[in-house]
UniProtKB/TrEMBL annotation:
It comes from Lentibacter algarum. The keyword Magnesium does not apply. It comes from the Bacteria. Residues 7-116 form the Acyl-CoA dehydrogenase/oxidase N-terminal domain. PANTHER family: ACYL-COA DEHYDROGENASE, ISOVALERYL-COA DEHYDROGENASE, MITOCHONDRIAL-RELATED. Keywords: FAD, Flavoprotein, Oxidoreductase. The lineage of its organism: Bacteria, Pseudomonadati, Pseudomonadota, Alphaproteobacteria, Rhodobacterales. Its cofactor is FAD. SUPFAM superfamilies: Acyl-CoA dehydrogenase C-terminal domain-like, Acyl-CoA dehydrogenase NM domain-like. This is 3-sulfinopropanoyl-CoA desulfinase. Coiled coil: none annotated.
Length: 378
């Protein structure tokens, strides 16, 4: 895609596209079939610099612009949705440190995370607080020179292998969203972090998610920013994360469309390639139109990400449209494959299963609509 990026970034993106197709794509079906955690790709991804793509160069990252980061995530997702979900969950954690942490914490955590020496997780959701995370009950109380964190989180991507988990917890139970603070918890170094087995999911089977119970102590130095600033940090992180979800959706949708185009040229019914049928041509045209619209909306958000202005609305527009359009695109692409599309011999059914979560996590489609409407009415 000809996204508006810097010339030197184009070289990096074409290397990432090649890596994704040559290294990630060949294992995607096996990861899905066996539900193998995509962390197996971490060493190769780290060597390419992928684990720090979202971070500035002074934090050890690639310092990519918003459009280039979008293109990179799209390339990874187009090759393997599970790997992209592991990667972008790591970004949610490192973004939390970047946006909320002080210089000491950033210097301690980010270079290693960018180099892929450590893996991060982002723990906001709780069993009774998903769409409205301000309802969380996990809390942190002062104990000695630090905090005791108590509570539980659910559906936390990467947690089972994470070296650090950014945990959002109430330091003031009476203050709603303003009572939330963020903490870095390093589960391999302390006791009191109990991580349940990987959830069994419909799709993104190689992107593992876990429930976590906390009764652990962390030093004050592990708090990200001042007490009460955690919710604001989480919302800024999700503004970025939603653009990355849009990128994952368009990456998979583009792969589905490409598969449908090839199949429409090859598959014959009678003497005709099925691509001769106008009904299928219209489906392909609708797919291409929606894919272009999703990418254009996403670019609007990705470009604004670099300006310093707020882009919550643009990010919600991109996530809402791209994730819903991607579902329609992959569904049409499966239809074009007929019965073969429904089998595991082709990747279409995996694309659909992988795409389904994008309309739910990091704020469901309904929550994106409330964000967009709030912007209109404010
Ligand atoms: C595979 C996977 C990976 C995940 N990874 C992470 C992670 O790494 N970190 C993390 O913190 N969380 C993660 N999550 C959690 C995810 O973000 C939540 O599941 C999501 O935010 C929805 O919350 P919920 O499941 O509690 O649904 P609920 O909040 O219970 O919502 C149920 C339904 O009600 C609708 N609804 C809720 N409120 C409103 C409203 N105001 N108006 C209209 N409709 C509404 C929702 O849209 C939804 O359809 C993950 C989830 C999954 C399944």
């Amino acid at each position: 895609m000809n996204y508006p990026m810097f010339e030197d970034e184009r070289t990096v993106i074409s290397q990432i596209e090649r890596f994704s197709q040559e290294v990630l794509a060949p294992k995607a079906a096996q990861l899905d079939e066996e539900a193998t955690f995509a962390i197996l790709h971490l060493p190769a991804m780290a060597e390419m610099g992928l684990m720090g793509m979202n971070l500035p160069e002074d934090a050890g990252g690639l310092g990519l612009s918003g459009p280039a980061l979008y293109a990179a995530v799209e390339a990874v997702a187009g090759a393997c949705g599970s790997t992209a979900s592991m990667l972008t969950a790591h970004f949610l954690a490192t973004d939390s440190v970047l946006l909320g942490g002080d210089a000491v914490l950033k210097a301690r955590l980010l270079p290693d995370a960018a180099a892929g020496n450590t893996l991060g997780a982002f723990a906001l959701t709780e069993p009774q607080a998903g769409s409205n995370p301000a309802d969380m009950t996990t809390y942190a109380v002062r104990e000695g020179e630090g905090y005791r964190i108590k509570g539980s989180k659910c559906f936390i991507s990467n947690a089972g292998a994470a070296d650090f988990i950014v945990v959002y917890a109430k330091t003031d139970k009476t203050a709603g969203a303003r009572g939330v603070s963020a903490f870095v918890v390093e589960p391999k170094a302390i006791t009191g972090v109990d991580i349940a087995p990987n959830e069994r999911t419909m799709g993104l089977k190689g992107g593992h998610v876990f429930g976590i119970t906390f009764d652990c102590w962390v030093p004050e130095a592990n708090r990200l920013g001042d007490e009460g600033t955690g919710f604001r940090t989480a919302m800024k992180v999700l503004d970025n994360g939603r653009i990355e979800v849009a990128a994952q959706a368009t990456g998979i949708a583009a792969a589905a469309l490409n598969a449908a185009i090839s199949y429409a040229k090859e598959r014959k019914v009678g003497d005709h390639p099925i691509g001769d049928f106008q009904g299928l041509q219209f489906m392909l045209a609708d797919c291409a139109t929606e894919l272009a619209a999703a990418r254009a909306l996403s670019m609007q958000a990705a470009v604004k990400r670099g300006t310093g202005e707020r882009y919550s609305t643009e990010s919600a527009l991109a996530k809402l449209y791209a994730t819903e359009a991607a579902w329609r695109i992959a569904d049409r692409a499966l239809q074009i494959h007929g019965g073969y599309g429904y089998t595991r011999d082709f990747p279409l059914e995996r694309y659909l299963r992988d795409l389904r979560i994008f309309r739910i996590y990091e704020g469901s489609s309904e929550i994106q609509r409330t964000i967009i409407a709030r912007g209109l009415l404010s």
